[in-house]
Amino acid sequence: MRITTPTSILRDWTWDDLPALVRNADDPRVAAMMRDGFPSPYTEEDGRRFISMATSPATPGLFLAIEVGGEASGGVGIHPLSDVYRRTAEIGYWLSPSRWGRGIVTDAVRALVPVAFATYDIVRLQAGVFSNNPASGKVLEKSGFAREAVHRHAVTKNGRLLDEVLYVRFRTGNPDLDTPVR
Ligand SMILES: CC(C)(COP(=O)(O)OP(=O)(O)OC[C@H]1O[C@@H](n2cnc3c(N)ncnc32)[C@H](O)[C@@H]1OP(=O)(O)O)[C@@H](O)C(=O)NCCC(=O)NCCS
Question: Is the CB of 25 under 6 A from ligand 1?
């Protein structure tokens, strides 16, 4: 997949991205806002594990590199949930701090929302944002997501107990209009 946004190219990961991935992901300011599966320090071995997963046809969901200035500078993904949550997907993203504040992730999320709804039989797209991450909340609000709930003390990160703010965007824009249960 390849999507051109005003500020980046969203495209499939390749093994050639390994050096840029490790260089850009290895930053505690990024890891601090992510689940613990995103390690810090971010080693070459972590990069290999990620690219292996992201390029495997057996991996559910969508993993795209955010290419800026000719290199993979971040990532954005769609992760469908399972079981009773199977008509919900999560959206996740990160970007190298050297590229922050230029609207790059907002453009990426805006571009990926229609792709997520076209690709998966989902009615909700959601993101759980740590309460100390207003920039991510801003990205989602600028992309048409609504702040739906605050899960008090849901997150333990780097030794701190944080709230998780859940943002959601519905397929129809209005959950009352979503398709009936099947
Ligand atoms: C959150 C993140 C993805 C944002 O990427 P980005 O490309 O810099 O985002 P954008 O430039 O599109 O938008 C950021 C917005 O947040 C605002 N912002 C930044 N820091 C802020 C702060 N401390 N408080 C309030 N708003 C803030 C910016 O001003 C901008 O809004 P504006 O366009 O209205 O001025 C990036 O900071 C990042 O990778 N963080 C670490 C990983 C992460 O948080 N992932 C998401 C987990 S839910």
Answer: no
